[in-house]
Amino acid sequence: MVNLDLSGRTRLDACPGALQVHAAADGGLARVRVPGGRLTTAQLRELARAASGYGTGVIELTSRANVQVRGLRTGVDAEDGSGGAPGFADRMARAGLLPSPTHERVRNILASPLTGCDGAGTMDVEPLVAALDRALCARPALAALPGRFLFALDDGRGDVAGLGADAGILPVGADEIALIVAGADSGLRVSPDGTVPALLAAAEAFLAELSARGVTAWRIAELPGGPAAVTARVRAALGTDVHAVPGSGAPEPVRLRPAVRGPVGIVPGRDGRVALGVAVPLGRLASAQAEVLADVAASGEVRLTPWRGVVLPGLALPRSEAAITRLSDAGLVTGSGSSWDGVSACTGRPGCSRSLTDVQADAAAAVATAVASGSGPAPSPLPGNGRRSAGERRDTGEAGGGTLPVHWAGCARRCGRPRGRVVEVVATGDGYRVELDGRSLTCTDIGRTAAAVAALRGEK
Ligand code: SF4
């Protein structure tokens, strides 16, 4: 029998994990899944120390609120027998960050970072994160999910529901939860108690659909007719535990919009406490910065966001001032309007062999150029190996910055591009092409590139 692979995928995904380390151009790359972005401060400290001890000393935050560490030595170290990558994985396991070796790469679960902290959501999804994670790891068959399969638990505020998850939930009424399939409302509704079974049913339906078609795909949306086929399987599997919205012939009863920025600054809470949103320039968190975050996190918990930032819940307002000062002094962004606001970049050189340039250093230089020309506040220096020298003044958090997000990429693949309308800055080999809405401008130096970016973002 000939298998017709309509998805275009011809191989299983090769997403790295903590055990399945990817051999990048700058050494081993390990990715650690952090369901819901939830870390205890003890886990964050352990990550920081392991990143310094085995890798480059930088924790990279990903768009799925996971973390990764680069520059690991692969193989076994003759001196202590632990080796870089195996030693790192062992430390993660002992910190409780690797609870299931078989399922480590499939624990991709987004959750609203501020859930339970303020009054914006209609349902606290915090307990669902742990429940989904446990249930996922308890089903051996779901270890076969691709490492790119994504769950999203939105608490009703609509911040993560639009981020393109394969299977997600969004509360839409009293005790009524919309099931999201392939980034859109499936039209199916479940009760709060039915959310975890419905999400697992969607994951199992995807695997069943792949098996039935005899094809390979990494995401539901890659399968022609995949969302409808998965939705039909979920409905059949759940029976009376799920119902379709009345007259749901409409393909998308609830419209979902991707949120393009995470919370930054003080977020008032409901119990006299506040949450503090912290932006991390280019998602690169130095070990020393991670230690400061752990120091000031009053609740013993930090929450990573899919916008490569962090939320510290449960701060007493009087303590928040001191926390802001320490975080700002450490080079993290604690106020809106920073020059780093909305700036992202792919890995680039030296980590990616495909890259035409050190794209993160260029993005940092462009931010510094924008500051020097008066269109933004002074940026923080990027943590790293000394190659990122642009911008030596700490971020003031004062007003400034652009309106549209901007994403820098070292080649046309544009890895990590945020969803939605984005200014794209793509390396050409002798400069950058700056693009938005079909318009593009080719620039051969950082000054002109920064000016073009500022113009398209609406800064000038
Ligand atoms: S966009 Fe290109 S250069 Fe950047 S990480 Fe992806 S493949 Fe590498």
UniProtKB/TrEMBL annotation:
SUPFAM superfamilies on file: Nitrite and sulphite reductase 4Fe-4S domain-like, Nitrite/Sulfite reductase N-terminal domain-like
All residue ranges annotated as the Nitrite/Sulfite reductase ferredoxin-like domain in the record: 29-73, 269-324
Keywords annotated in UniProt: 4Fe-4S, Heme, Iron, Iron-sulfur, Metal-binding, Oxidoreductase
Region (Disordered): 372-403
MF GO annotations: 4 iron, 4 sulfur cluster binding; metal ion binding; precorrin-3B synthase activity
Enzyme class: oxidoreductase
Enzyme Commission (EC) number: 1.14.13.83
Spans traversing the lipid bilayer: none
A Pfam family that the UniProt record links to this protein: NIR_SIR_ferr
PANTHER family in UniProt: BLR3264 PROTEIN, FERREDOXIN--NITRITE REDUCTASE, CHLOROPLASTIC
Name of the protein: Precorrin-3B synthase
Gene source species: Planomonospora venezuelensis
Lineage: Bacteria, Bacillati, Actinomycetota, Actinomycetes, Streptosporangiales
